[in-house]
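User: Can you help me understand a structure? I only have the sequence.
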Amino acid sequence: MSNQLHFDLSAAARRAMLAHGFEPDYPPAIATQLEQLRQHPLPANPSARDLRGVLWSSIDNDTSKDLDQIEYVEGVPGGGQRVLIGVADVDAFVPKGSPIDQHALRETTTVYTGVDIFSMLPEVLSTGLTSLLPDQERAAVVVEFTVDAQAQISNTNISLARVTNKAQLAYPSVGAWLAGTAAAPPKVAASQDLQQQLHLQDAIAQRLRRERSSHGALNLETIETQPIRLKDGSIEIEEEVKNRATQLIEDFMIVANGVVARALEAKHLSSIRRVVKTPKRWDRIVEIAAQMGTHLPANPDPKPLHDFLCEQQQKDPDHFPDLSLAVIKLLGPGEYVLEKPGEPSQGHFGLAVQDYTHSTAPNRRYADLVTQRLLKAMIAGKPSPYSDDELASVAARCTLMEDAERKVSREMQKRIAAVALSGRIGEVFDAIVTGVTDRGSFVRTINPHVDGMLVRGQQGVDVGDRLRVTLVRTDPVQGYIDFARA
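Assistant: Let's start by predicting it. Here is the structure, written out as tokens:
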């Protein structure tokens, strides 16, 4: 829109990073470490398996360059399939305690602000040497497991390997093709072998998803947004919806993370787990379900909640993302915790899994890099490189900075939306209530998906309520978008 405000979003993103405890600039010692890497490239590990000839492929966002994992599936004698997940060996380039590692521990996560990406690791690594880019030989940690016809997991293994990504693919085009709503993307269309590979991966992932669902994994379908800069400099907000390709990767990663967690437990190694404990506002989830004619038990239980969500998705698919959003807000955020061998696992409520650690995105998350070091010590038969106190400290830092990352992302989403909607004051939108706090009540509009505060007419509303709201003010400097109940 030509009447949009002109506002420096990149400068605002940098200010938000600093305000929430991030350090966008790398310290000088990192440049020295990178120069040493350039002058002395790492030799290939002679003990690593040579899996460069395997038909590996990656599926990620259209613009992703920090590729963390690749996948491959093959049949096994007696039925079933063998799934291989190759994860970038970041630790090989980032030794524990090195300047890059110290900075990564301080940040703990890559932050995607919608306008700029603030990488946990220098981009020469995260989008270069440690990224599983196509047609480039890379070091990887490979997680393997066999899936039978009943989606049971067996014959797990974790090893080091040399790999080459044969095809970098993207969620939107692969997802549409798998769903039968679009033609195959060019790389897929050009290879019958790759087509067969992806169909097999999709079938296995759907089988795994059904099995997880039977144990109460929550069926949630949210709509994310990303800003699109138009040629005239204005900004539009584009929706990103989950599809078969995002589900495929999600299902494979959940199993891989479970395999990793159980492997570390079996070797009596402490680890960092990702947990979502008892929902913060189960009573409100029960209330929302009752309004839709479903009775949920008084005590939190993922299985009946899953059944309710599946029923609502079939009944009212158009509004299901709104219901999912309300449930996610009421469940509350997850956290990282120290898990000692032999102690009861706190589990992950939303995924209906007891064994869950983060291990498949070491370019983007520090917890995954720590887990990778634990795995490499396990493979080599060496003691853990971390004490329990160190792991507990890392877990607390990761939780703290993940919360900060959410705040930065949320603020920037609001600033971007404030610019995009600056020319639409007075328009009326359908919305859902996403939060009720001492600071006020918050809503998300349905089209486009924009978060803001309800500054008039907020009395008596609660999370999950649907409203009509009028846009009354936008302020990109503060990140304010204000609505009044229509």
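Now, to help you interpret it: The chain has three domains: 9-276+348-416, 282-332, 421-485. The first strand starts at residue 49 and ends at 60. Let me know which part you'd like to focus on.
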